[in-house]
Amino acid sequence: MSDKKGKEKTKKEKGPGFFARVKMLLADERVPKIIGLTFMFASVLLLVAFISYLFNWRADQFIPVGERAINNIGQLGAFVADKFFRNGFGLTSFVLVPVLFLTGVRFLNSNISLPLRSTYQYAFLSLLWFPLAFAFIFSSPSISFPFGGAFGEYLDTRLESYVGWFGTLMLTVFSMLVFLVVRFNINFNIPSFASIKERVKRVQVPEIKVEEETDVQHWEEQIVAENKEAVLTDVVEFETPVTPAKTKEKVKPDLSLEVVETLGETANVVNGMHPEPIDDDLPLDVVETEEEVILPESLKINYDPTLDLPDYKYPPLELLRIYSDEKITIDREELEKNKDQIIQTLRNYAIEISSIKATVGPTVTLYEIVPAAGVRISKIKNLEDDIALSLAALGIRIIAPIPGKGTIGIEVPNVKKEIVSMRSLLASEKFQTTKYDLPIALGKNIANEIFVEDLAKMPHMLVAGATGQGKSVGLNAILISLLYKKHPSQLKFVLIDPKMVELSIFKIIEKHFLAKLPNSEEVIITDTKRVIHTLNALCIEMDDRFALLTKCNARNLKEYNAKFVARRLNPLHGHKFLPYIVLVIDEFADLIMTAGKEIETPIARLAQKARAIGIHLIIATQRPSVNIITGTIKANFPARIAFKVTAKVDSRTILDVGGADQLIGRGDMLLSNGSELTRLQCAFVDTPEVEDVVNYIGKQQSYPDAFQLPEYIDDKEDAGGMLDPNDRDDKFEEAARMIVTTQQGSTSLLQRRLNLGYNRAGRLMDQLEQAGVVGPSQGSKPREVLFHDLMQLEQFLNQHA
Questions:
Q1: Which of 345, 388, 519, 786 sits 20 to 30 Å CA-CA off 307?
Q2: pTM as predicted
């Protein structure tokens, strides 16, 4: 026993091992800065050495010992440059200079956004292709400068031995063209003689005639209309000083509490909000010829969808409240007390730590500890309940380790919790200047930083939590964020509320932002049968949008709208500006219990495909069980929000991990987006605030009606009913005249000419068959038209009116 104790004592005296010391060294924030400066310094030296080598390469090849090198970096520069040029990659060695410099900048400041990934990719491809090309081009014996270096000469020699001189040339050119096509999607369109002739003709004729006068008039009205912009007012900065912490007792190692300053958020107080500008950098060069619109020079101006409602004003921030207790106050006594309790609890189990610091958030404080060398993380993780008992606090959560850091996090609820107002989020610079397509301000993270995400990239969201834990407030925060950022022409909501009370407040903005089924009186959908029809109508809308995107070679809604805004698409061919559609379902569990597969099937279809064409889903439930949140639903909803739940199994159902059962409620939530798990305090927006915002919007000029979704009729419900002569479609006579005029009994013709959905066009064709206007279906062939002129048809219609 004494020998064993002696060995343990010897190990303690030796201190941490080699790998532990290396790990602690890398955790020091000074080390990345030194590495970054080293990379940048090396890049500058390489650049000077390489440039000097270009002018003195003959002298830099062989330098006798003791003689001074001509290279500006001396013998070292001459040696390194010669190795890179002659024994390496030749002229392509210059690629290494920006790679080293950008890498150094990233080490110095990880918050700077740099295209490192693409830089590394291009550098790697350049080191493969350019040495070969240089060696092939400058392969003459009279040229002794190492343009391609040893690497390029090796590749050139091997290729020429296999495929010969001409084959090497073809492979080199072919590889470059493949890269240009993959990266830049270059075109190889050669204009035909007819197109050249047409261009010459247009140049010679000064006036351009457009057959559709009404269409040109519409474009001109759009251009003449004024586009009023909102004005930003002064910037207000909120800052709270933090005094240094005082250590009560000396502990070795020094465990004085370091409080991280997190209150430096800058907020912009704004009277009006700007709609997000459309990205002009999108590739717009692939468009079918028949889809392009030829306009006079006076009309070549971008289409602006916001001119549909040119006087629309975004709601001002004054409609939202500022809470007096929103500003975070740091209780030094509470922090020190919690720190001492954590250290003492860990010591009771023979666990030593080397440092501890606290980050104060609105409702939770994060204590980051660095365990001493040799301490297993699992030992600390297993003490979660013991630490909660010693602190006498609910909602203790241990993160072991914190992703991206060499520390272990212990989240402890604050005694005094702060309110995160919606106004503080929307007034922030982060939200004001965001370029997201559908920005939503969810709340503040544990470091008191405003959290803004793009719903368009999520692309669908699942919200779950027990009753009364902040789920409905979270939905209101999401909707208010979008109302403050988007114009009515750019966004539409489909609101489904089986509880009938949560979302009814948004009925006021029906003609501005909401979408509904044709001939439907209720815009907030509460009836289960109407919900099924609405979801299937959204599926039809999705298919119609995909057809438009396919027709104009666009990959997603953003590319399609950019082409339409640039007037590259012809409205006469069915093209129109497509707004984003956000489907919100407040109580998903109730729908699944009453309708089951009839609800889950269209939801799954939309979740799998609709992201590309701008339809995004937000479903919420207070019953997070596996029969409600099925595998199909979870697979297509990567973004999930969990408010406090009562059991760990519910947390795993929502997030696939525990933690939601340890939240403290009142808006405390966990957001899982892919592999990241973030704890947030949800923004609080009260019902009177929501009423003020929707009333402000509702009083303004609106569209004549809500956005119309495609019509959907369940074949099972309406079998036989729609063929009653006394209940014909409103467009029956118009469809009959069109069929007789064109002598084509085609359902697709009805869809195109009358702008109908597939189901309604099919019912119209059945009614025309029953009335004797067309014959029975002949498979893929058009039906036979039984009337040969309009006079016979008019007599028939008058007799059967």
A1: 519
A2: 0.57
